[in-house]
Fold each of these.
Amino acid sequence: MTACPAASFYSRATPTAARELLGKKLVRVVKRGGRLARLAGKIVETEAYGSKDDRASHAWAGQTRRNSVMFGDPGRAYVYFTYGNHFCVNVSARPRMEAAGAVLIRAVEPIEGVEIMKQFRPVADYLSLASGPGKLTRALNITSLLDGTNMTDPESVLHIEHGESPSQIISTPRIGISRATGKRWRFLDSASSHVSRYGQIKVR
DNA sequence: CGCTCGATATTCT
DNA sequence: GAATATCGAGCGA
């Protein structure tokens, strides 16, 4: 078993990939004072996005410059800028080449390099360090420069490594969207502090 | 606590 | 011009 799930892992229906990504590690390698440092977090919350079947997906209306990674090789980073303030990071995934899609990584629990993450995103409480899609990209210094990065390659400065799957998974409707709200394509590790801390899952 | 609102790039209508 | 896969500050209870 290699360090990273291979492209075949992402060549599946996006809700399946989203579910399976829980418990895996999101790894970011940064330069700090001339040295390489590893930042890593356990993925505890994801959302699946499809293609023409999914009105809420960026891929729904077809390919644009922004979403082109969703139409390319599975297992690549799709990073986009939203609300004029935040980046969000996804992994491209889809069951067939003619489809498109991605899995949004919504929250991670810091595992390695916590002190460096705090430099990127100063916050007192480590639980809130990366407990949201905009928060984790800041804590891990993920920007659109990393759009298209191969997440299946352990040499990439941004990649995903194997981890232990959670024993229990919760699914809910997706957050922050107004279309296709009926799909329960948001997945959470029910054991994560992120979930237990907020008790009831708030759904908009 | 919970609610409202500003920030403000990119895409869509 | 409007909406958006968000966050945190500010306010009132």
Amino acid sequence: MSRSRWEVVYDDVRGRIERAELRDGDQVPGELHLAELHQVSRNTVRTALMRLEQEGLITAGRGRLGRTVRTYAPLTWSLTAYERGTRRDDPTRGVDDWSAGVKEQGREPHQEVTVSIELAPPHVSEWLQLEPGAMVVRRSRRRTVDNRPYQLSTSWFPERIARDTPLMEQRDVAMPGGILAAIGHPQRRLRDEITVRMPTPDESRLLELSVGTPVCQHVRIGYGADDVPVRVMQTIAPGDRNRLVYELEV
Amino acid sequence: MSRSRWEVVYDDVRGRIERAELRDGDQVPGELHLAELHQVSRNTVRTALMRLEQEGLITAGRGRLGRTVRTYAPLTWSLTAYERGTRRDDPTRGVDDWSAGVKEQGREPHQEVTVSIELAPPHVSEWLQLEPGAMVVRRSRRRTVDNRPYQLSTSWFPERIARDTPLMEQRDVAMPGGILAAIGHPQRRLRDEITVRMPTPDESRLLELSVGTPVCQHVRIGYGADDVPVRVMQTIAPGDRNRLVYELEV
DNA sequence: CAGTGGTCTAGACCACGCT
DNA sequence: GCGTGGTCTAGACCACTGG
């Protein structure tokens, strides 16, 4: 059960981080330095460091500044105050719950919306209980905080619900009590499904994720009268920037 | 912006999986085969395949059977039916909500409990609002489904609450309405904090995780009378085996 | 046994980004 | 400019595992 050579290097660097000899943001010793220190080839050192990257402990590094110890400072995302209007600063100004929550934490939120009509993707038609081939309205958001990407959030509405409503507008539409209630389809019940996985290459690019950053996929289905789904929202939230919170009454 | 050689191999294999030419459980072409096919060295092929491993698309492989396309079949874990007794088959038999939920999905749950008294770890004393140096009772569970590890779940209780109660017993203690209510400390309110990260080496070993499997860390704090914390439970749930669900009334 | 991946070496050249 | 990591090669030997 002897450790391989790269594991020795791995243990060395991981140990320095766990014992706080290397702290958040510190530069990790270079590849040539570690190769000399442990008397192994540079490739063996790289095996160890790439493992630490993929475990999220250190960043990949470019140029003169090498690898550094990764920093985590996730923002809290409340999933229960959301939808209830309890956090709105001033609903008439179009401030939504996510933005308000971010501002409360002293950060600057931003999001752009793009709206389109499309054939319901397989998962979406399942969530919304639509027949294959049904049309849906899609509202996509890319959310940033202090100009850094934080979430990808996409909502889909059955076409019959969103037609000729503010949901078709290419801008943020926040209303007191929620936009769906305002157009006659209030949500009575919500079902949240949370899964955890590694990002797709597209998600990695849009969210500027470094190697070793998993994402949380949060799907919220809203049911209206007669328990019929009126919308589904899928949010991709990188693990290094998000903490999800539910407050429940027993 | 030309793709490097290993990215060409990466695109090839990822494409085959996305187009379903390779399906769940299928064997991935061998390293030597891909090296010959793309006219690159074996190490270049390995760079591509290891990237796909860490993205969770393929397994590492040993022996005659090489790498295979990874399969995902997560079990649903309901976080709201839990705690309310609505799912208990027969509380007197000691079947808890997690076990009942797994059985509903046609699988065989199992868990062992180990109990100990310890100095509250920093995070725990913060969650339970205890002074540094306070003692806590710790109940650790390793949960398995069909003999495969599924979750690591650890609860901590302030020592003054758990002393001389069934919470000190080295076995599963389920009671109608919940064990805390039965010993005079019912939970009035819950706060769930969910974070997403890569596993520690210890977690990887105990849960038998392959490279590229992120975990969900679910922390539930229960507050009793006067909003004082009475327990905290931390559950580590691998992303390839778990789907968390919340049902919310608006 | 035969073929798979795991480990390891000793080189090489290049792109990047501070100073 | 110079040191960092990124890419790539052509070998070698070993451990594991299914047939």
